[in-house]
Amino acid sequence: MEIHRIPLDQALASLRADRGGLATAEAERRLAEFGPNEVERARREPGWHRLGKEFVHFFALILWVAAALAFVVGWKDPGGGMAGMGWAILGVILINGLFSFWQEARAERAIQALERLLPDRIKVLRDGAVAVLPARLLVPGDVVLLEAGDRVPADGRILEAFSAQVSAATLTGESVPVARLASEASEADPVHATNLLLAGTTLTEGEARLVVYATGMRTQLGRIAQLTQADRGQASPLQREIARVSRFIAAFATGLGVLFFLLGRQLHLTVWQDLIFAIGIIVANVPEGLLPTVTLALAMAAQRMAKRDALVRRLPAVEALGEATVICTDKTGTLTLNRMEVVQAWLDGSWIPARDLRAGGYEAFFRTAAHAHSLKRRQGTETAVREAWLGDPMEVALVACAVEAGLRDAEPERLDCLPFDAVRRRLSVVHPAPGGGRRLLTKGAPEFLLPLCSRAWMGGQAVPLDEPLRGRIRQALESAADRGLRVMAFASRDLPEGCLRERLEEDLTFTGLAALEDPPRPEVAGAVRTCRAARIRILMVTGDHPRTAEAIARQIGLVEGPEVRVITGEALRKLTDIELQLALDHPELVFARLDPDQKTRIVLALQRKGEVVAVTGDGVNDAPALKAADIGVAMGRSGTDVAREASDLVLADDNFASIVAAVEEGRAVFDNLRKFLTYHMTSNCAELLPFIAFVALGVPLPLTVLQILIIDLGTDQLPALALGAERPEAGIMDRPPRGRRAPLLTARVFLRAYGTLGLFEALAGLAAFFTTLWIGGWTWGQALDLSHPLALQASAACLSGIIAGQMVAVFLCRSEERSLFAGRLRPGRLLLVGLLTEALVLLAINRGPGLLSGLAIPPRAWLAMLPWLAGMVVAEEVRKALVRRLPASG
Fold it and tell me: Distances from the Cα of 194 to the Cαs of 190, 496, 544, 820, in angstroms?
């Protein structure tokens, strides 16, 4: 049953309640039946279960297997160093798992924020008397008493209302308070029904008495909580891609390990030699540092974004925003200032911009704007006009307009007041007239005020308000409505002696119209243009009036053509999912008057079309869509706690333009992830080829387990991280977004790492390795134990060649297409630290106390590396030139 659509007496009967409230015993019975009036929390997995999952995903499992094999071999051969390899792998698993759990364990606080919207204690009728009770004890059938400033504790049907106005922005997105009254029935939806008050909204003016019909999770606020809980957030595109890459690399590494184990059996290696060989192949190809490096790179990008007023709450959101193809944005407080302003006034038959308004000659109009209100002045010292008053933002804007136009009248004594209500749609105040007597000042909705006017103030005098003049006023109202402006009409009257109160609002003189708007943020239009250049579509998805939404969309350049389609919530309810997806293809589209679940429906429809969706918002009504989106962006200043807690990213300055900066950083993150993934795989290839040479050529083992650890967890990490911290490349916002299905690891990346960079890096190491052996007198086929000085010296030379190749490769990996000699920015601090680390490792290898080698590497071994390092640069420059000339999608 829709309780707002039936007569009031029938509504009371359906609740088995009356205007005097419930008896205490009946209220206790209902509390036991319906439960407390509070937002419930969805059950979550136990913490131990969520922690355990971090150690059994596919990437972790392959590392567990590698660690187990290393321990087995280490137990059989204690001097081989395999036990150290096993412990190192376990350390990587532990660090990855704990860090991921910590990210997951950042408790979801959206529901707690919803709870804070409900008042702690409320006035309720029990046993025919007023009682003050905790809001959680409310039950259906209770009668609640509210006054200005109170938050509504539950959904209720209004029994009585006196000048009641409610701020429903948290539920509807509308910035202007709306009137509520005790009407018999309303055909609107519950969120906009004038005879209902809903939980989480605030009574800004007047008083109201309501009978509760829904509490807790059954309220509109509870429905939003359910929607927020229902979607706990999908894995981000980056998380899904990292999982895919991890599975591929793990499968690739395992397959190679098994293949080379079988090859070793054919070459008659011992079982333990074969196992060492297989484990080396697996570990060489599994980039153990990939996941920590990804996390740290995202964290560094988040720090850069914080400097640009975009605060990251969930690290994967950093990159996800860079993939966004559609931004669904709220209007109020996001695209607009969430502050009413007078933009023009209709005086003497024409619209005058607010900046040109002067009080001289229009004193009656501006006195009405300044003094006909229900505002309350703040206590304390003098402040700016807008900060000096408490109440309806529209009335504050009118007072500010009068002051800015030059009106300097002191606030007069108020003799009488006919307050605004939803039936009369106007407000009147009576003040002493300057020359004696009384003067009436009235403002209100034009359609309700103009019929009471018989004259109009034109050209400095009152003239008859005849039909031609009324027609001109109607034209002025239509032009303002086309712009989505909210219009107030003004009138005044000098009251005759003895005028009865019920006849005060008669024979009025129309003095003008004021057109107000919640203006767009000045920087938004430029941000919209930047998004267009970046091929990111922006959809306005708001709870505000359709005409207002379209007008703001035109002002900021969101829509431009004549064929704009505005879809309201009522129209959206009639569309099937297929029809909605087809409607989303319309190039000039605006959504207005939407319910919270409808915003979520739009997000899901876009995702089914393959879009990566970002949603911006600031109200409770935005929370479900913020959760369902690939990335939710909340406003930090004007946004509610609910919106911020449901989001992935918070704009500290409430500036829509900050999204553009965040998108640029996000796009750079994906590019950078490819760079350091390429760098990681290059090192993996360089580790792999020496093991293949060990088996296929029958040479001494070029790399030891310890040396692989030096590469994977030492020299590889800082340069790779530095690539993840690279600044965005020029022109990054001039290309289209990659979209949801863009892979991180492509054939181009794989071939570049294994076919060019890694191949030359490995050849540089092997060249140094063989040169050292030959200088030391080694002959082909001669067996050398790993502890032999020449074997140690040769393996140190191989390691040195690979590290030298890493130092060259990190510069080549800074761009996938741009030449190394094209004037790139100088290396960042982290890259310099990484290079210094590699240089210190090289120094330790060649001048250390024998920990990494036994003897210094001969100079001829260094010379043997140089042709291959130069060949790496030449091959990369040729490849980049071909890519620039024949760009490929992958």
Answer: 9, 36, 16, 67
Half-sphere exposure of 573 (CA within 13 A, CB side): 8
**Please, are residues 875 and 760 in contact by the beta-carbon 8 Å criterion?**
yes
Q: Are 589 and 606 in contact (CB under 8 A)?
A: no
Contact 7, 185 (CB under 8 A): yes
Helix, strand, coil share (%) of the chain residues, nearest 5: 50, 15, 35
Which of 786, 752, 761 shows the shortest CA–CA distance to 711?
Answer: 761
CB 639 within 8 A of CB 654: yes
Environment class of residue 610 by beta-carbon count within 10 Å: exposed (0-12), middle (13-18) or buried (19+)? exposed
HSE value, Cβ hemisphere, 13 Å, CA-based, for 233: 21
- Residue 706 exposure: Cα atoms within 13 Å on the Cβ side: 11
At 113 the pLDDT is 46
Q: Name the token pair of 556.
A: 């900021």
Torsion sign, CA atoms 582, 588, 593, 597: positive
Q: Which of 144, 95, 105, 99 is nearest to 123 (CA)?
A: 144
Asked whether the beta carbons of 524 and 335 are under 8 A apart, the reply is yes
Q: What is the DSSP string of 421-447?
A: -TTT-EEEEEEE-TTSSEEEEEEE-HH
For the chain, give the mean pLDDT: 82
Q: What is the pLDDT of residue 100?
A: 57
**477-526, pLDDT tens digit by residue?**
999 988 888 899 999 999 998 888 889 999 999 999 999 998 888 888 98
Residue 232 has pLDDT above 50, yes or no: no
Phi, psi torsion values for 829, nearest 5 degrees = -65, -40
Catalytic residues: 330
Torsions phi, psi for 433 (to 5 deg):
-80, 150
Structure tokens at 641: 């706690």
Phi, psi for residue 624 in degrees, rounded to 5:
-60, -40
431-441 per-position pLDDT tens digit:
998 878 899 99
What's the pLDDT band for 252 if we cut at 50, 70, 90?
Answer: confident
Q: Kindly report, residue by residue over 176-209, the tens digit of the pLDDT.
A: 678 888 887 887 778 878 899 998 888 877 889 9
Is the model's pLDDT at 767 over the cut of 50? yes
Question: Is 0.90 topped by the overall pTM?
Answer: no
Q: What distances in angstroms separate CA 39 from CA 114, 136, 199, 219, one per listed residue?
A: 7, 9, 11, 9
- For the record, the structure tokens of 184 come out as 């018999």
Q: What is the DSSP string of 761-814?
A: HHHHHHHHHHHHHHHTT--TT----TTSHHHHHHHHHHHHHHHHHHHHHHHHTT
Residue with tokens 């402040």: 383
Tell me the two tokens of residue 419: 């307050």
Distances (CA, A) of 815 to 661, 668, 727: 21, 11, 11
Q: Are strands 129-134 and 389-390 parallel, antiparallel or unpaired?
A: unpaired
Please list the residues that pair with 567 across neighbouring strands: 591
Q: Which residues pair with 531 in a beta bridge?
A: none
Distance from C-alpha of 257 to C-alpha of 284, rounded to nearest angstrom: 10
pLDDT at 652 over 90: no
- Beta-strand relationship, 376-377 and 389-390: antiparallel
Contacting residues for 732 by C-beta, under 8 A, at least 6 apart: 664, 667, 668, 671
pLDDT tens digits, 391-427: 778 888 999 999 999 988 888 888 998 887 767 889 9
